[in-house]
Amino acid sequence: MNWKALIICALLSGSALMAWASDPITCKEITMLLRNGEQQQFIIDDTVRRKLLQPLSPQEEKELISLGATPALMNTLRAPTTIASPQAVADFTGRAQQQRIAMLQQQKQEQLRVLQADTKARLQQPAQRVAKQPVNDLVGKPLDLKFTAADGSSVNLANLRGKVVLVDFWATWCGPCMGEVPHVVAAYKKYHDKGFEIIGISLDKNKDTMLKITREKEMTWPQYFDGKGWNNEISSSFQIHGIPSMWLVNKAGVVATVEARRNLDAEIAELLAQ
């Protein structure tokens, strides 16, 4: 087995490299090995040595066969003697859970580090966030907003007349923002076909991280990104001092509320009905 396949297996199983050799193999690993052209005799030998974590489901069998799994490989995977013992499964599950917890702790520490760094920068550079149009003055007035999104598309709020639009100021390092994401995504799926759109204004500094999160969380709407964190050009122009901040713009292009977070679903439904 080549070193690239070894790394792929370790990543897919969620195990550290040093524990890989003794952990049961998973169907997901076998699927990836087949897709990467690994010799099937090696997969058979490795499965017999490590044992299969759990019996294959009919759907898994179908997928493996579609990837070219030979009868010899399928017979090995179906053999009762190939399945890992309950103790081996329990040991593997325990290690995987510990690794997931450790990974979550690392993610939280990184989010906290980024938040602290951005907060420090914000406090040290207050003069760079001069308001051009204070938030409280926006309600009842037309909103002019246009930019090139992170995906290269052109966004112009004026072109969305006749639709209700949520302008969402957020960041991946902001815990409350990420807590709101499921509600925002649910609202988008519920009302998009009825004339509801979202425009994201990301206060992130790392574009790759922002794009990764938007893909994972199904945030399919356009995002403004300039990598300046709290000094984001658009949020600074509106004197945004805290996120998440959610505004709703009605069908006429007028700001209906700058506090949409409080009752988002009802606010959207009311504006769509107008």
Walk me through what this model shows:
- The chain folds into 2 domains: 1-124, no CATH class; 134-273, Glutaredoxin (3-Layer(aba) Sandwich), CATH 3.40.30.10.
- Strands 5-4-3-6-7 form a 5-stranded mixed sheet. Strands 1-2 form a two-stranded antiparallel sheet.
- It is elongated and about 70 Å long.
- The chain has 11 helices and 7 strands.
- Strand 3, helix 8 (175-191) and strand 4 (196-202) form a beta-alpha-beta unit.
- Helix content is 49%, strand content 11%.
- The chain has helices spanning 3-13, 17-20, 27-35, 40-50, 58-66, 71-78, 86-124, 175-191, 207-216, 233-237, 264-273, and strands spanning 146-148, 154-156, 164-170, 196-202, 223-224, 245-249, 255-257.
- The chain is α/β, with parallel strands linked by helices.
Summary of the model, kept short:
With 274 residues, the chain is of the alpha/beta class. The chain is built from eleven helices and seven strands.
Key phrases:
274 residues; Glutaredoxin; five-stranded mixed beta sheet; two-stranded antiparallel sheet; 11 helices; 49% helix
What is the CATH class of the largest domain? Alpha Beta
Give me the CATH architecture of the largest domain, please: 3-Layer(aba) Sandwich
What is the chain-wise order of helices and strands?
HHHHHHHEEEHEHEHEEH
Low-confidence stretches: 1-20, 125-132
Largest sheet: 5 strands, mixed
Indicate the overall shape.
Answer: elongated
Order of strands, main sheet, comes to 5-4-3-6-7
Helix content: 40-55%
| CA distance, first residue to last residue | 64 Å
Q: From the helix content, strand content and strand pairing, which structural class follows?
A: alpha/beta
The total strand number stands at: 7
| Beta-strand content | 5-15%
- What's the CATH topology name of the largest domain? Glutaredoxin
